[in-house]
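hey so i finally got around to running the thing on that chain from the lab meeting. sorry it took forever, my laptop kept dying and i had to restart like 3 times. anyway pasting the input first so we r on the same page abt which one it is
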Amino acid sequence: MSYLKFDKNLLINLDQSLPKEMLRTNRAGAYHCTSIVGCNTRKQHGLLVIPLGDKEYKPHVLLSSLDETVVQHGAPFNLGIHRYSGGVYSPNGHKYIREFECESVPRMTYRVGGVILTKEKVFISGENRLLIRYTLVDAHSPTTLQFRPFLAFRDVNELCIANDNLNKDITPCDNGVSACMYPGYPTLYMQFSRKPEWVYEPHWYNGIEYVKDLERGVPYTEDLWVPGYFSVPIKKGESIIFTAGITEAKPRSLSKLYESEIATRTPRSSFFNSLKNAAKQFYLIDGKKEYMLSGYPWGTILARNTFMSLPGNTLAINHREDFERIMETAVGALKHYMLTGEKDPKIHGIELPDIPLWAIWAVQQYSKAIGANEARNKYLPIVSEILNYLLEGGHENLQVNSETGLVSTIGTSTPVSWMNSQLHGRPVLPRSGYLVEFNALFYNALMFGVSLAEEDSKSKNSINIERWKLAAEKMKQPFIDTFLNDYGYLYDYVDHNYADPSVRPNMAIAIGLDYSPLDRRQRKGVLDIVTRELLTPKGLRTLSPKSYGYRPHYLGSPEEREQALHQGPARPWLIGFYADAYLKVFGFSGVSYIDRMLIGFSDEMSQGCIGSLSQLYDGNPPFTGRGAISHATNVAEVLRTLKTLKRLLDSQNQSNP
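ok and heres what got predicted. didnt touch it at all, straight out
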């Protein structure tokens, strides 16, 4: 039985099936995303969504959907489904669905009278091309399939409105047609593995609604252009393949292309394999450079998310080469910023003060996974460069205090940490001064730098080692004096005479790092409070329910959601640092506990975006997923935790044969 499989009873119930979404990508920035019944519920959904533009990652919806119709004895049965004004769904193609499973590729099975039809979709790796294979499993009379393409040609965050400015021309191509609605867009080629009949029957389909956008309080209604339809007769046992891409395909090669592509797939046959597939969906190859997308469907390339998610989404699934390629791209942008002060046009936020610290953390995870010698040979120069750059005051917004050795930042007017929600251009949480995770990361970076350089034979590192040791030792006691309070937990930030008493998960980062100014007893005290007040089955809350301003639900208008973003909803990625801290305090005896904690994420594989993890979850039961449907740091840290558990269990088994 497939790990991700849904039956007729769930699929025909739109209240249950519409919230479940599926995502496929091509590692070049293009994607296909919709609900599991094929009804688009967000403006970012589409059958073929591709990135356009040279500088930034900006996806655009070309082909919104493709409505299939089964025709027998002159009677049409439309398998499509759209929501129109007033909450009306038409046509009601979901009532013909008998099964959806998503092990190797998404596969839908329809039954229309005596007709059984399957539909399988696959993206071509590295190419802006989608293939859909239709197989007529059974039929008792002559059958014809019709296909109506719904075209958008728009930015994923915009909406299409009926207009007279579009180009209505349809150009024949090999076994299909091509179209380009507006100047500046590439031509969309729609072809079949054998020749169809094309019927030019142009219409605007007006008032299509996206229920997820309606819920979010943003514009949610658009019009889509349908220039006509394809008609193809099909026999029992026969398959035909449809392709949509921005270059013309060779129809005779489609079957072979389809088979070769699915042969490379890792079956989503388990919790780990589902996350492994999700992790690879964040890779973005652009020419000779490789990046990490922050998430779907409205993610972009963010420096912090890149370094935070890189170890889990590559090393934890044995993709060392991808780590090194993405790291090379990101480190190149960071070095350029440190040298010139210039931001990167593609990797956003490279100038933020904690980025160098997360970069060293990523190297540290590489060292643990691949080996210290490999890390030293490959990354010691950049670690040295970053540490000396910071100690010498090179970063304009991360200053080392000459007396305490602690690092401070200014975040009153612009967010500087991962808690970066904004309203009217101002931070919702103006975390400024000494931030607990910044200082913990800095101490950890210094100590890791020492450990990495100590066995290096180059004489210049003896100076660095002594300098970094002194800097770490200098800040150790001031860290404790500044952040550890009488209640046994860590202040979130300290700005002049104000110490923020909010119980937040940034202290979990501080106790989860390999090197911490806190001793084991102090770590345990902090861990106990994190466990009692922040831990949920979906990660750590961003604020304790006991703290002022707790807002557990990420709902309402854009302003209300921005207010709630870091005021209670849980973040799965924080479970990685929580698990690290727990295992450091309790050792092998904590393995079974952390393993049980991951059950909550395993259950999530059949919810939300199936096979992946949402951006955040409500802080109160039932912990519903919200925000971006697939988030890189969440997938990464759960994978890294699974890898850590496996390493500990393997070590335990070896010591107790």
